[in-house]
């Protein structure tokens, strides 16, 4: 059974950086795409970034382009989200997730329903 555990969240100021980590246990996820989502209070869960199996391709939602970078280290069964130039609107609980779909990915069309296993989330708060 796969488990995902996020870490690295915290309280930072506008313009600061954070790196989130998501460690998987239970099986290797190197062949599967993984993603980061976030959910702010009273808002729907938002797809933030994704990376295909073995790091073949990455995707970011437009609001974080140029600021957030997703990466994976398959030797550590871990994915990362490097977040730079943080803004108050980035405040949310951040979740990592894995999709077991192994076809061609169209991340623009994917939603949270396409992801099978989720972590418990890590809080990111950006003060102004």
Number of helices: 0
**Low-confidence sequence ranges:** none
Tell me, briefly, the overall form: globular
What is the arithmetic mean of pLDDT? 95
Number of strands: 11
End-to-end gap: 40 Å
Percent of residues in helices = under 10%
The rounded Rg comes to: 14 Å
Secondary-structure element order, N to C: EEEEEEEEEEE
Helix/strand class: mainly beta
Strand content: over 45%
What is the makeup of the main sheet? 7 strands, mixed
Describe the model.
The protein is mostly beta strands. The chain is 0% helix and 46% strand. The protein is built from no helices and eleven strands. Strands 2, 4, 5, 6, 9, 10 and 11 form a seven-stranded mixed beta sheet that branches. Strands 1-3-8-7 form a four-stranded antiparallel beta sheet, with no helix packed on it. Strand 5 and strand 6 form a beta hairpin.
Which structural traits does this protein have?
128 residues; single chain; mainly beta; 46% strand; seven-stranded mixed sheet; four-stranded antiparallel sheet; globular
How would you concisely characterize the structure shown here?
This protein has 128 residues and is an all-beta fold.
Topology:
Elements: E1 3-7, E2 10-13, E3 18-25, E4 34-39, E5 46-51, E6 58-60, E7 68-73, E8 78-83, E9 92-98, E10 117-118, E11 122-127
Parallel strand pairs: 2-11
Antiparallel strand pairs: 1-3, 3-8, 4-5, 4-9, 5-6, 7-8, 9-10, 9-11
